[in-house]
Amino acid sequence: MTFTATATTPASEQRDAGAAAHPAAGEDAEARRGPGRPRTEELDGQILAATLAIIDADEAVTVSRVVERSGVSRAALYRRWPSMTTLIADALDVGRTVPPPLAKPGDLRARIFEFLMGASAELDETSYPDQRFRQRIRLVMSDRALQQAYWESHVSVRRRPIEDALRAGIAQGSLRPDLDVEACFDLIAGIFYYQLVVRGDRFDDPAARARCRAGLEVAWRGMEAQPPAGDQMSQSTEP
């Protein structure tokens, strides 16, 4: 029986008995390549590319199909990815990058807004096709183990620059001291995901981007530190 990623059978609940029973054949095949065999990174790339091709073709991801398309032995596949769940999670993230830390100088609000609006603009058809995004949503929603693997290995890592910037804002006093940083990121991310998943819009739609920016403005007002009571009173009495 093979690993698959389908809506009816979670990838994490299936095994490929053949690879476990006959690892030597794959080992021998890889060894015969000799000194000129591809580097580990190249083998990883072949496997990920094959997995993505299967996903993009809307086919079930099985060990047999990955081996056939990649030309890599089953033993080599299992050495790198012990399960189809982790392989699919990594393949679904190809084309995405871990953002660098936000530069510290300057206005925190402006930096975060620029970062988020810029990151959404970069999700174009070249780096991360819309069809792949939709396949990712379908696959992770049909398999909770895959959803958790994708969260732990990729999504949680990409959140860190914004979360770290929010923590810095709390330390600097520009954001509320009682701010729940993770909840704030969930709120911000929800603004963007709603446009794609619920409305069915794209980030190159000016109206969708305007809604994202307006949503960020509302969220930011709730996150900002309130001025001292004396300052509030003086502002309210100004003509």
From TrEMBL:
Residues 29-40 have a biased composition (Basic and acidic residues). The keyword DNA-binding applies. Residues 1-40 are annotated as: Disordered. InterPro entries: Homeodomain-like_sf, HTH-type_TetR-like_transc_reg, HTH_TetR, Tet_transcr_reg_TetR-rel_C_sf, TetR_C. GO terms for molecular function: DNA-binding transcription factor activity; transcription cis-regulatory region binding. Residues 17-26 have a biased composition (Low complexity). Keywords: DNA-binding, Transcription, Transcription regulation. Coiled coil: none annotated. SUPFAM superfamilies: Homeodomain-like, Tetracyclin repressor-like, C-terminal domain. Residues 59-89 form the HTH tetR-type domain. Residues 106-210 form the Tetracyclin repressor-like C-terminal domain. Residues 1-12 have a biased composition (Polar residues). It holds the Pfam family TetR_C_11. PANTHER family: HTH-TYPE TRANSCRIPTIONAL REGULATOR RUTR (PTHR30055), TETR-FAMILY TRANSCRIPTIONAL REGULATOR (PTHR30055:SF148). This is TetR/AcrR family transcriptional regulator. It comes from Pseudoclavibacter terrae.
